Structure formats: C-alpha cells, structure tokens
Amino acid sequence: MDASLFGALGGQLLGIIPLGDIVFYFTPLNLFMCAAALAFTFLIAISQTESQVEAEFGSLHDREVKVEKKEFKIRRFLAIVCGLATAGAMVTGDLFDFTLFVCLIGIVNIGIVAAVKQVDVLDAAYQYGLIAMIASLPLFGGASLILASAGTISLLQLVQLSYTTPMMALGSILVFMGVAGESGVAPFFATKAEMFRTPGSPFLLIIHLSSLLVIVRMIEILLIINKPF
Amino acid sequence: MIVPDVVSPVVVALYTPAIIVGIIAGLIGLLGIAVEKNDLQILILTDLVGISMMIFVCAVGTDLAESLVLPGLVVELAEILAISEVLMSREIRRNGKEVALIPLPMHMDMEILDTSPVVIAILLIAVGAFESGFTGGAVAGGGILFYVLSRTMRGVPSGMWEGIAGASGISWCLWLAGFMVFFVFPQYWLLALFLAAFGVFIKVAFKAGLIGVIGREEFKKE
C-alpha cells in the first residue's frame, strides 16, 4: 500500500486495526467522530434520567417527576447499543460493515421509539420501521453494486482505484439513499410522536446524534468512492 | 477486467438479468405498498422489497457476496420481527383486551399434550444435540417449544421464560466470543470453531424464549 494514496482518505492515516479481512482505520476526522459518539454513549450510560424536573403552569414551583428504573432499563440499553453502533460506523474500513452498522442503528432506533407504550407513538414506530425496511433495499443493493463493479468493498482498496465507473457512482448514491432512510428519517418520526415531552427523553438525543454523525460519515465515503472529488 | 477468466461467460451474462429482476420485484413491492391500505399487508409487501434486496446481493455471486447474504437476511428478519412486534403491541393496546402469553389461533386441548410431551421433547433434544450446530439447534428448539406449548395448557411460569432467554443470551455471547477469536487469534481456530458451534446450538435451541414472548408486558403472564 502506498502511503501517499491515503491522503484521499480525508486526512493522515493514524493507524488500522486488522481483524482478519475486517479492517478499522483511523483518520483525524473519523477518530474525532468516533470519540464523540463514545463520549455521548458514556454520558447516557451514567446519567440518571429517572428523575426529571417539570415546570408547573400558573405558579413558580417546580415539580419532580420520578419514573421507575425498570422502565428505563431497555431504553438505556438500546441507546447504548445505538451509540456503540454509531462509533463503529465511524471507524470501519469496510463498506458492508458500514451498512450493517447503519442497519443496527435503524433497528435500535425502532426499539427506542417503540418503547413508549402509547398508540400514537407505536404508530410512528411502525411507519418508521416500514421506511427503514424499504431503505435496506438501496442500502445493501448499492453496496453490492459497488462490490460487483469494483471487485472490493474495502474502503482502503477503493481509495487506491484510479477511476470511478458509472455503476460505482450509482451504487454509492443508492447507499446514500439507504442511509437517509435507515437513520436520517429517525428524528422526524421521534418528533412526530412528540417523544421529547415523554419521560426519559434524554435517551432520544442519541437518535439525533447518530443520524448526524452517520450522514457526515456517509458523505466522507461518497467522496472516497467518487474519484474526481 | 474484474471477473477472472475461469468464470464462464454465461455466468457473467446472468448478472444484468438478475439485477433487472431485482429492480422489477422491488418496484412491484413498492407499488403494492403505495396502493394497499391494510397495515398487515403493507408489512408483508415490505418483505417483498427486502427479498429484492437479497436478489441484488446474490446476483454478485462471489464468495464475498455469499458471506454478505447471511447478514442481509438476518437484518431483514430482525426488522420484520421488530415491526410486527410493534404492530401487535399497538393492536393489543388499541383493543385493550387481555391476551394470553402464547396466543394460539385455536384451543389446542389435545390429549397428547397431556400424556407424552416429556418423551417427545427429550427425543427431539437428543437428536438435536447429536446433530449440533444450526440444524441441531433448530430440532432441539422444536422439542423445547413443543414442551412449552404443552405446558401452556396448565400455565407456564414466566420465570421459566426468563431463564430460557437468559441461557440463550449467554450462549449467544459464546458464539460471538468464538468469532472474535477467529478474527484476533486465527491460530486457535479449533477452540473458536467449538465455541461457535455449541454456542449457536444452545442459542438456536433456546430461540423459543426469544420469539418475542419475553418482552411483552402486554401479555398476561402466569
């Protein structure tokens, strides 16, 4: 591998973790995003969202709302998994691993949204689930188009190719559409169900953080695959 | 050229028709979703879209594509299970009726469920343990599921479900640890192979606990 080619990876290559044919690599940008996701996951893991302070209407008093710890167990777990999957998607050097991490984020987001047992919220979770499932078609389809046209899905190999065929460009755009459907629309459905006013809403912020970081990372991957840029 | 010369040109020429079939299947599914208004049928049509995704991946037809088919299938199954759980949970909440732990379409009060569940279950588990791996796990899981079904007539304690799910999760971790050993220390492949084989055997056998019954607080537990 020629060291000068790694300039196209979006920064200096700081190191790789080879696990068989699954390779994680670190550049300053994706290392920073991974660290941000991990730091936020740590905050979620230690935060105590069982007690919440609400302002009362018509007076200057505050009211403390206590929610049972048991109710939050599953949501906290799902939020932590979502954060770890986001961190993994930031540093993976394999396009198919990236799509799998994004799918994991999608499934976990369905779980976080569906954890509130109200009919309206479950309705939003159901619709989000349908979108996420439909989006897996462009996500995996795009990745397999890139595999078929380039012969590899390792980003470290793709960055060394000197050309981009139209099929690869189409595949990368399909992957982008898939990412938008799996994780990009999640905040919309969370907001649609007005989940930010339900108890335990701090866990919901991981949905926003993950969709933000994943989209940034996806644009980085688009730039890696499509050569003129 | 990306494709090596040893591959027959007929196989290479199959790629484009396969992609076209995938696109057509996906379009049919999406059209159906656009027209249909019944929630359950939309869910089933979404599965059709997922299958066209599998066609896309399978069309590549290399070793790597084969190893990508399984995660794709698992993701597809996980999503459809999650969405159907959400749908069931919503309908149960909307109806507001009490639902049994294992909802059955008919009243299965057969005599065989009273007299011989233990023998049949032990037989199936023994056959499964002999086979080991994924198939063995499925056979043994059938045995456990049969036993649980027959016990349902008299009432299954919910602690039993939680125990089964816990054992299933631990063996799943064994399987994952086996795979990590494969990646990190390839020289200990035999240990990794056995960890993975027996982890997946116990895991699949205890799948009964993870069909989704466990997490439903809507259901009446006994």
Please provide the count of β strands of chain B: 0
The portion of residues forming beta strands of chain A comes to 5-15%
Task: Let me know the average pLDDT of chain B.
Answer: 77
Largest interface: A-B, 38 and 47 residues
Number of H- or I-type helical stretches of chain A: 8
Categorize the overall geometry of chain B.
globular
Question: Order of helices and strands of chain A, N to C?
Answer: EEHEEHHHHHHH
Question: Roughly what is the average pLDDT of chain A, rounded to an integer?
Answer: 83
Strand fraction of chain B: under 5%
Element order of chain B: H for helix, E for strand: HHHHHHHHH
Described by its quaternary structure, the protein is: heterodimer
Please report the distance between the alpha carbons of the first and last residues of chain B. Answer: 64 Å
Low-confidence runs of chain A (pLDDT<50, min 5 residues)?
A: none
Biggest pleated-sheet summary of chain A: 2 strands, antiparallel
- Counting structural domains of chain B, the number is 2
Radius of gyration of chain B: 22 Å
**What number of structural domains do the residues of chain A give?**
1
Name some characteristics of this structure:
heterodimer; A: 229 residues; two-stranded antiparallel sheet; B: 222 residues; mainly alpha; Helix Hairpins
Question: Nutshell version of this structure?
Answer:
Chain A is built from 8 helices and 4 strands. With 229 residues, chain A is mainly alpha-helical. Chain A is elongated, with a radius of gyration of 20 Å.
Layout: helices, strands, pairs:
The complex is a heterodimer of chains A (229) and B (222).
Chain A: E1 15-19, E2 22-26, H1 28-46, E3 51-55, E4 62-66, H2 69-91, H3 95-114, H4 119-150, H5 155-158, H6 166-184, H7 186-192, H8 205-225
Antiparallel strand pairs in A: 1-2, 3-4
Helix pairs in contact in A: 1-2, 1-8, 2-3, 2-8, 3-4, 3-6, 3-8, 4-6, 4-7, 6-8
Chain B: H1 9-13, H2 15-35, H3 39-60, H4 63-95, H5 112-115, H6 117-131, H7 133-152, H8 158-184, H9 189-205
Helix pairs in contact in B: 2-3, 3-4, 6-7, 7-9, 8-9
